[in-house]
Amino acid sequence: MTDSAIASRAFVLFASFLAVTGCGSQSSVGDGNAEAGDASPTASVAADSAAIDACALLSAQDVSALLGAAIAGRSTSTDPTMPGCIWENADNYESIAIEVGNPGSAANNTLPPPEPGFPDVGTPGPDGMRFLVPGQVEFPAGGRSNMVQVAVMAMSDEEANAAAVDLARKIGPLIPR
Fold first, then answer.
1. Cα–Cα distances in angstroms (integers) from residue 46 to residues 50, 90, 176, in the given order
2. Which domain holds residue 80?
3. What is the mean pLDDT of residues 27-44?
4. What is the pTM of this model?
5. Which long-range contacts (CB under 8 A, 24 or more apart) does 129-135 make?
6. What mean pLDDT do residues 123-132 have?
7. What is the mean pLDDT of the chain?
8. N-term to C-term CA, the chain
9. Total structural domains in the chain?
């Protein structure tokens, strides 16, 4: 892949992430700083949907295995019921991002169809998931429509999709209703 193609792909992935996250801003919910040495996701994610620490949904090992370095998560949402987190390698701008959706946005843990009059975005994935762009998957969990994105330039589209699905499968059971 040429440098121009890599830069273009990185821009498209980042722009897609911003579009899905609604250009969220940094939050003071939780501390937003999952430590790089944490061994596993925090099992004590809030039982009620009032506050979820999205940065606690992935382990340091999950993050470093994909980004090649220990990276602390940073909150991307000011809404504690719809949190987000991004782990970004400042050396190469590769990242992993999570957005937890609005409570009730995936009734019966099924992603909603596109809004009437809008085109169907994405392609079907496994387990009721939907691929939005390469490396970005929307998935139902906790009665919510959630998203995870893996933006790693060395990965092919198929590898990035597989990594996103793997993370969605790890995150899903930790998202409370």
1. 8, 30, 7
2. 3-111+120-174
3. 39
4. 0.73
5. 129/165, 129/168, 131/161, 131/164, 132/16, 132/20, 133/12, 133/13, 133/16, 134/9, 134/13, 134/160, 134/161, 135/13, 135/160, 135/161, 135/163, 135/164
6. 96
7. 79
8. 42
9. 1
